[in-house]
Amino acid sequence: MPKFGYSIFSGDGRKRSGTIEATDIVDARRKLRSPGVTISDVQPYGDRRLQSYLRLPKLEPSFDQARFFGNLAVLVAAGLTLDQSLLRLMICRVTFCR
Q1: Interacting residues of 18 by C-beta distance below 8 A, sequence separation 6+
Q2: Structural domain that includes position 85
Q3: C-alpha closest to that of 44 among 8, 16, 2, 9
Q4: What is residue 59's predicted lDDT score, i.e. its pLDDT?
Q5: What is the pTM of this model?
Q6: What is the 3 state secondary structure string of the chain?
Q7: Which among 31, 27, 92 has a CA at the least distance from the CA of 8?
Q8: Total structural domains in the chain?
C-alpha cells in the first residue's frame, strides 16, 4: 500500500506531521479526518516534485496558520459568511489587529 506524508493541526493547535498508508490521497484524508483535527497537507510520500507543487505556499515567515484558522473558525461560528470572515482577517492583517 502506498505511503502518504501529512501535516495536520490538532485540537490544541499544534502542528503534527507523519506518514500514513492508504490506497490514495482521498483514503489518506479519510483516515486522518477526526473531530478537532484540521488537515493541512497530504501528498505522496517521497515524491519531491509533487512535494514542492502540492505544498501550501509560504505567505511570509511570520504567518501563523494556527492563529489564522482559529480566528477564521471563531468568525464563522459567530455567523459571518466565509467571505466576510476572510475579508475581516485580511483587513486586520493589514492594520495589524491582534
Answers
A1: 5, 6
A2: 65-94
A3: 2
A4: 56
A5: 0.46
A6: CCEEEEEEECCCCCEEEEEEECCCHHHHHHHHCCCCCEEEEEEECCCHHHHHHHCCCCCCCCCCHHHHHHHHHHHHHCCCCHHHHHHHHHHHHHCCCC
A7: 31
A8: 2
Q: Are residues 17 and 46 in the same domain?
A: yes
CB-CB contact of 19 with 1 (8 Å): no
| CA separation for the pair 84, 76 (Å, rounded) | 9
C-alpha cell of residue 77: 461560528
Cell for 49? 516534485
Asked if residues 55 and 49 have their Cβ atoms less than 8 Å apart, the reply is no
Q: What is the pLDDT of residues 20-67, one digit of tens each?
A: 999 988 899 899 888 888 888 888 887 555 555 555 555 556 667 888
pLDDT band, very low/low/confident/very high, at 81 (cuts 50, 70, 90): very high
For residue 34, the domain's CATH number is 3.10.20
Do 34 and 71 belong to one domain? no
